[in-house]
Amino acid sequence: MKQDRKDTLILPFEKGLIDPPTGSEKWLFLNAASLDADAGFKQFLMCEQGFRPEFVALEKAGFGAVPLIESTETFDGAFILTSRVRAVNEQNIQRAASQVKAGGVILVCGEKATGIAAIRKWVGSRVEITDSLSKHHAVCFWFKNDVETFAADAQEGHANGMFSASGPDKGSELLTRHFDNRIKGKVADFGAGWGYLSQALLEASERIDSLDLYEAEWLALEAAKRELNQDGPVPIGFHWIDIQSEFRKKPFEWIVMNPPFHHGLHSSRAPDAQLGRTFIQTAASSLVKGGKLLMVANRNLPYEETLTSAFRKVVKLADDGGYKVIEATK
Ligand SMILES: C[S@@+](CC[C@H](N)C(=O)[O-])C[C@H]1O[C@@H](n2cnc3c(N)ncnc32)[C@H](O)[C@@H]1O
Q1: Listed residue (305, 131, 90, 29) closest to 326, CA to CA
Q2: Among 80, 89, 79, CA closest to 114
Q3: How high is the pLDDT of residue 100?
C-alpha cells in the first residue's frame, strides 16, 4: 500500500524517538486518519474528523472518532495531521496545546506539498521544536507542550476553511440566477456547504415542499443549520453523509449542486473530476421520471458524457465567466 503522512506520523515512535502512549493515557488526534493497526495506538486515541469519508474510515478501522471534540478534558499528548487550510492547522495546534498537559508531546505531521514548512516555522517562532523527521513526502515535527505558549492564538469559533467561507462562489452565484418558481416538490442540495444554494432556493420558489441538504463537512453543515430558517414553512433535512458511499435514494423532483472536485479540505489528494461524476450519477439515480438536475461546474470539467448517459435531455443554460450551468432531465 502507498505510504503517506500517517505512516510518517508513527515513525518517531517506531524509531524510539518518542515514548509511545501507555497505561491509561489518552492522546488527542486532530484531523485524524486511520493509522496502521499494527502500531497499536487505537485504544489511546480520541480522534476528531469532521469530513465524513475519513470519519467512516476511522470508525470502520475501530478508532474512536467524533466529528468535533467539544470536551475540555486534558490529554497526555496529541497528534495533528495538517491540511491544505493554514488557519485550520494553526487553530488545531493551538487547540491541542490548550488541552495537552504540560510537558506532553504534540506531534504535527503533513505533506511537504501542503505547506508543512510554513507551519513548522509558525510553531518554531513560539516554542522550541524538539526534533523532526521526513519520509514518504511528509514531514513530522514535535515539541513539548507548556500550555501557555499558544494561548494568545486562541480564537472564537472554529476555523474551517469551508468552501466559499468568505462569500458566495461565482459559479454558485451564476447557478442561483436560474432558480425560480418552476423548482418545486421534494428538492435536494448535494454538497450543500453552508447552505448558500439552499437559501437561494427558498427565496426563489414558493413551491418547494421539502428541502434536503447533503454535506460531508461537519462544520459546513453546522453553518448551514444556522444560515437557514428552520422554523419556516418548508421542512429542511440536514444530512452529514458521504454522497459517494452513503446516499439513500429519495424520490426528488429537483436536485441542485455545485459538485466538489477536491477530496475534502483536509486532504492533500489532487483535484478529481470523478467526484463530480459520482454526484451526477447519484442525482440521476434518485430523481423521479421527468425530475431535473440543475448544476454548475467549471467549464473545463468533463461531465458531459456522464450527463448524457445518465439523463434523457441535457441543456446548457449558461456559459459565463468560466462556468457552465446545466439542466438535465431524467
Ligand atoms: C463546490 S462546494 C459547493 C458548496 C455549496 N453548495 C455552494 O454552492 O456554495 C462542494 C461541496 O461538496 C462537499 N463535499 C465534498 N465531498 C463530498 C462528499 N463525498 N459527500 C458530500 N459532500 C461532499 C464539500 O464539502 C463542499 O461543501
Answers
A1: 305
A2: 89
A3: 96
Give 294's strand partners: 256, 327
Please name the residue whose Cα sits nearest to atom 11 of ligand 1: 191
Ligand 1 contact, 260 CB (< 6 A): yes
Q: Are residues 136 and 193 in the same domain?
A: no
pLDDT for position 175 = 98
Assign residue 265 the CATH number of its domain: 3.40.50.150
Ligand 1 atom with minimal separation from the 172 CA: 8
Regarding whether 138 and 70 lie in a shared domain, the answer is yes
Q: Which positions of the chain have pLDDT values less than 70?
A: 1-2, 37-39, 160-162, 263-269
The answer to whether residues 196 and 149 belong to one domain is no
pLDDT for 7: 82
pLDDT digits (tens, 9 = 90+) for 111-145: 888 889 999 999 999 999 999 999 888 999 999 99
Ligand 1 touching residue 163 (CB < 6 A): yes
Residues 6 or more apart from 21 whose CB is under 8 A from it? 27, 41, 44, 76, 77
Supply φ then ψ for residue 168, to 5 degrees: -55, 145
* Counted domains in the chain: 2
Same-domain pairing of 26 and 78: yes
Q: Write down which residue in 125, 153, 181 finishes a domain.
A: 153
- Going from the Cα of 190 to the center of ligand 1, the distance in angstroms, rounded, reads 7
Beta strands in 32-184 (DSSP E): 45-48, 65-66, 75-81, 100-111, 131-135, 138-144
Quick check: CB of 244 below 6 Å from ligand 1? Answer: yes
